[in-house]
Amino acid sequence: MTDLRGLLRLPVMAAPMFLVSGPELVIAAARSGIIGAFPTQNCRTADELDAWLSTISAALGDGDQSLPWAVNLVTHRTNVRLADDLALVAKYRPPVVVTALGSPKPALETVHSYGGVVIADVADLTMARKAAVAGADGLACISAGAGGHTGALSPFAFTAAVREFFDGLLVIGGGISDGYGVAGAIAAGADLVYMGTSFLASEESRAVADYKQMVVDSGIDDLIVSAGITGTPASWLRPSLLAHGIDLDTLDVPQERDYRAGGDAVRRWKDLWAAGQGLGAVTDIRRVADIVDTLAEQYQQAAHRLTTSRSLEGTTHA
Ligand SMILES: Cc1cc2nc3c(=O)[nH]c(=O)nc-3n(C[C@H](O)[C@H](O)[C@H](O)COP(=O)(O)O)c2cc1C
């Protein structure tokens, strides 16, 4: 199985984002020394997915020689394209497959057959235990502060709890937006950090210009976590909800809503924009390579701080 950490400049994955991550972001991330990823759902058809995968594998190399990249696959039974998408995974052999909204099981045989790694996206300990038992090589633990669908656990508490029963690849995400936080997560026991919001306003992101600008202009107080839009707790940019006349006072009250994926109604993700608590660190629209350079500098500074901080040994407490 691929040793991912050895291939990376920084232990980070640019997390898959619906309607935001495409081949440009994946390729830029991998060339910058982190893992790039996209959800297969960003392609409307299997043919389009075939074209994206072909572009990415041509740019990043094939098989063992490939720079690291990942696809995010919905393994829930409602995904009617799962078999087609898995066939394309077998064809293009992404080094990492992240499974979401279902068991990692359907992807294991295919991905292991070419030496790839399966990471299951989990948002609580019950999901994490189930995915570990199912045989996932890694767990992407989505913690409080994440953009899009979010978890509720602190990343530190989540890491510690998962480490009690899982010694595979532990990926932690949620509100981690600078290299200092990456170093903190690794020091706490994670192997990789999952970062979505930090790349939302990158030049290579497919988010529309107004969305990117809103991420740049907004801070942590501009977020609202609610299950009222998709049925699952997610972190949204409050100004984008207000712009579409959504009443925040009744957002959490169960009611019939029409946030369609298409058509004339307000479309969640497309019109209603998500972001996580790390958005305060996004102050400009930048190239992925420049974002990763900054992360790497901060990571080095944090590592230095850890090794040079005044030793507590011998300190006496009054
Ligand atoms: C706009 C947006 C769209 C997202 N779409 C998906 C998705 O399609 N599939 C998925 O597994 N996670 C999705 N996520 C979650 C990210 O993969 C990741 O868990 C999260 O961004 C990590 O937290 P951070 O945003 O604080 O860095 C999305 C996040 C955002 C901000």
UniProtKB/TrEMBL annotation:
SUPFAM superfamilies, per the entry: Inosine monophosphate dehydrogenase (IMPDH)
Similarity annotation: Belongs to the nitronate monooxygenase family. NMO class I subfamily.
Identification of the protein by name: Nitronate monooxygenase
Tagged with keyword Ribosomal protein: no
InterPro entries registered for this protein in UniProt: Aldolase_TIM (IPR013785), NMO (IPR004136)
One example GO MF annotation: monooxygenase activity
Keywords noted in UniProt: Flavoprotein, FMN, Monooxygenase, Oxidoreductase
